[in-house]
Amino acid sequence: MERITFKNEAGLTLVGHFYAAPSESIVIMTHGFLSNKSSSGRFDRFALKLQQNGYNVLTYDCGGYGESDDTAIHFEKQVADLKAAKKYGYQIGMKKFAFWGHSLGGRLSLTCYEPDIDTMVLTGPVTGAIAYQHVDNFSKEQVAQCECNGSMVFYVDDPWRSEIVLDKQMLTDFDEMDQAATLENVHCPVLVIHGTEGALEQELAQITKQGAELFPDGTKMIELDGADHGFMEQLDEIETLGLHWLHEHFSVK
């Protein structure tokens, strides 16, 4: 694994981990809300497994997260970050691309679909609008701060930073996702994995089911019984499901 850096269109430096393999196929992994390139250890282990199976892998911190440059986060900034990560992949000689996203990283993956994306693996993805109050326990004080100052501060347990600044726009971004417009633009097979436990994961699964007919042909949806939004007790199963899916839909060259 190599620590790498690249720039987004705003000129911010983004930090990633690149797992090199002898192929021209790369899986770009995008983390969720208030997370980082490790994704609580999920991406670290998945990336190593994929690397061992011949895939190059890039995990990265969106701007304002992890080791990347500071900025107040909102969705469109993170869209630009994933596009910058994909551009970096081209710059280092990659020819085939797949996305792997967790939670909000799933929405980012869907939003950033382009015809050169062969497939996606999404765990607990945000596939439609969800009230921001359901995403995290925003306090009245935090929301008031956000309304007044245009941003709010989250203190996080992160090896690289102590706080993440949330732009007021992010609250709107959760509430206003156009599910149909997003999913109708995706034209590759997608593996969608949801859990059955916890209010957040149950709501996200229901949102995905409501848009099931909008997903492209070849999409597969799986519910893991007993899994909550973190999937921390099901990592072995997700690793196996994801790897098998990639073997079927994403060749190693």
UniProtKB/TrEMBL annotation:
Serine aminopeptidase S33 domain ranges (all copies): 23-133
Pfam family, one: Hydrolase_4
PANTHER family: AB HYDROLASE-1 DOMAIN-CONTAINING PROTEIN, MONOACYLGLYCEROL LIPASE
Name listed for the protein in its UniProt record: Serine aminopeptidase S33 domain-containing protein
